[in-house]
């Protein structure tokens, strides 16, 4: 019973986390289209902060906590699929960290990447999520 509740909570917060990871680079694109120093730019900085504080940060914490509890419950630490999932999830967490750093740069007025590069970023969470879901459902090894 606990297992199913943990899994339900895990999946719910995975959805929130992924939604945030898709939204933030989109915000960056709109942010970079605004006039430097304008009121609109300040509004994007605020939206990016709120998205991180309200959605992204709580979600990544809950996904990790519930995911590790699930792993403990089913003894996943010795299973091959779980090792690869862990690697992908660590990479996704690093990507999250990179986005947070980019948001701080943008807030300082540094626009390091082009809109095209930021749009390409949206492929990262999509690809990672597809691979992770196949690993947890099919468990090919
Ligand atoms: C952050 C660290 C994470 C850990 C430690 C973790 C660990 C786990 C574990 C142990 C399970 C149970 C598998 C089973 O009962 O057979 C699970 C289920 C699941 N995880 Fe994660 N997970 C993490 C992140 C993610 C992410 C980022 C995604 C998707 C992008 C994801 C998607 C899923 C799904 C869809 C299931 C349900 C699979 C099923 O139907 O059995 N997890 N996770």
Short description:
84% of the residues lie in helices and 0% in strands.
H-E order: HHHHH
The total domain count is 1
Average predicted local confidence, pLDDT = 97
- Helix-strand makeup class: mainly alpha
Number of helices: 5
- Percentage of residues in DSSP E strands: under 5%
Separation, N- and C-terminal Cα atoms: 26 Å
Write up what this structure looks like:
The mean pLDDT is 97. It contains five helices and no strands. It has one domain (2-138). With 141 residues, it is mostly helical. Helix 1 (2-32) packs antiparallel against helix 4 (115-121) and helix 3 runs antiparallel to helix 5 (123-138). It binds protoporphyrin IX containing FE (HEM). Residues 7, 10-11, 14, 18, 63-64, 67-68, 70-71, 74, 76, 89, 92, 129, 132-133, 136-137 line the site of protoporphyrin IX containing FE. Protoporphyrin IX containing FE (HEM) binds at residues 7, 10-11, 14, 18, 63-64, 67-68, 70-71, 74, 76, 89, 92, 129, 132-133, 136-137.
Describe the structure using short key phrases:
141 residues; mainly alpha; 84% helix; 0% strand; elongated; binds protoporphyrin IX containing FE
């Amino acid at each position: 019973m606990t297992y199913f509740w943990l899994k339900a909570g895990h999946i719910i917060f995975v959805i929130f986390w992924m939604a945030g990871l898709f939204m933030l680079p989109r915000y960056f694109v709109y942010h970079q289209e605004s006039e430097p120093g304008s009121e609109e730019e300040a509004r994007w900085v605020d939206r990016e902060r709120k998205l991180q504080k309200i959605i992204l940060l709580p979600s990544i914490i809950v996904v990790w906590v519930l995911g590790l509890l699930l792993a403990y419950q089913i003894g996943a630490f010795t299973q091959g699929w779980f090792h690869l999932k862990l690697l992908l999830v660590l990479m996704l967490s690093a990507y999250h960290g990179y986005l947070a750093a980019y948001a701080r740069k943008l807030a300082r007025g540094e626009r390091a990447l082009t809109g095209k590069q930021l749009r390409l970023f949206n492929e990262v969470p999509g690809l990672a999520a597809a691979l992770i879901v196949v690993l947890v459902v099919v468990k090919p090894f």
